[in-house]
Amino acid sequence: MAGLRLRDRDSIVTAEGLIFRVFGYSHPSDAYICDLEYAPSKVFKSDNPKAFRSNDGKTVFYKFYEDEGWKFIQNSFPQYTIFHEMLQTRVVGVAQSSIAEVRKPCLELAKLFETKPGDQLLETMQDALKRTLASSGLLLDDFGVFGSLLHGFHHPKFSDIDFTIYGLGNVVRLREMLRELYGKSSSLFRNEFETNASVSGKCWRFVNYDLGEFVWHQRRKLIYALFKDDRAGRMVKVEFEPVKGWQEIVNDYDVETRIVRRGWVKLLARIVGDEDAPFIPSVYAVEPLKVLEGQKSAGEIVRVVSYLEEFRLQAFKDEVVYVEGNLEEVVSSKGSFFQVVLTYCPRYYEQVLKVVSNVSSAM
Asked: What is the pTM of this model?
């Protein structure tokens, strides 16, 4: 596996059958920073009814949600952590020498798209993608497939359809197309968050971000769709996950740079750059307006970096946001700067990035 080139949403499978998602684009030379997505039932069982995955009723996997995977690796498989020199701590990751198999969304989609569908979900996937290509002018190579379809344990009647979309320009084009389709009564596509139905009964744990705010932010992201399939007799969830094109990727992992935690911070800021907002990590260039809590150095923050999908495409240029998370100082030979990071941590559910509707009262 030496010299293997992977990017966000590519999947790594280990000898134990653990399935990891490659996380982001900056990695050490001999390993990949990852997020654990699925584990076989022989090593992990979940009480969450949404977690069950099986294609034949015999081979069973369970999906991890929120910070479950991070905790599971810490407690049960610490060998799948790597030392992050920049953070000076261990994070979830897989050494190249421990990779048993690699699954790439773009390659799997190409096979599934050209194959006669063997079940209803695959037929629906092909139909939804054909309509997407026809309406957007994008190419098959601009897309991939992840989630249960990538791994072959989707349920024909209940699974969702998860696409990757590669490259910022293609993401912009896709979102414009979806905005148009959502507004047409003749379209089979609807915005998943057009109503509150998608969060009905949802267990919500974020303390600074309520469900109403969540739905409002999700609705305008446009990448979460419902596809009406009369043959399947249901509305199928279709997600389009933005991933950087190869030419857009820069590996910022630097063994000489140090990232130092400087405490917790709360602030109001204006978004001054949103080019990397669609991707994971989502990066927002900001201008601090008021530090509500935290060190004085928080007034020098230049960006917010989110590793949490809840805060992808969360805000756009010129919008004012409320931010709460970890204050970090990035120190290198070229100098230093401050950032707020939203990530897996003990105060996971206190973190937030959200648009502020009434700035004057907040200040």
From this structure: 0.92
Sign of the CA dihedral with 251 first, then 253, 256, and 257 last? positive
Average pLDDT in the 331-360 region? 89
Q: For 77-126, what is each residue's pLDDT tens digit?
A: 999 999 999 999 999 999 999 999 999 999 999 999 998 887 889 999 99
- CB-count burial class (<10 Å; 0-12, 13-18, 19+) for 331: middle
| Cα(309)–Cα(344) distance, integer angstroms | 11
Q: How do strand 258-276 and strand 320-332 relate by DSSP bridges?
A: antiparallel
Residues 6+ apart with CB under 8 A from 7: 22, 25, 243, 244, 246, 249
Q: How far apart are CA 211 and CA 215, in angstroms?
A: 6
Domains located in the chain, CATH noted? 11-102 (no CATH), 105-247 (3.30.460), 258-362 (2.40.50)
Instruction: Quote the CA–CA distance of 34 and 6 in Å, as a whole number.
Output: 11
Amino acid at 64: F
Residue whose token pair is 């739905």: 215
**In the chain, what is the straight-line distance between the N-terminal and C-terminal CA atoms, in Å?**
53
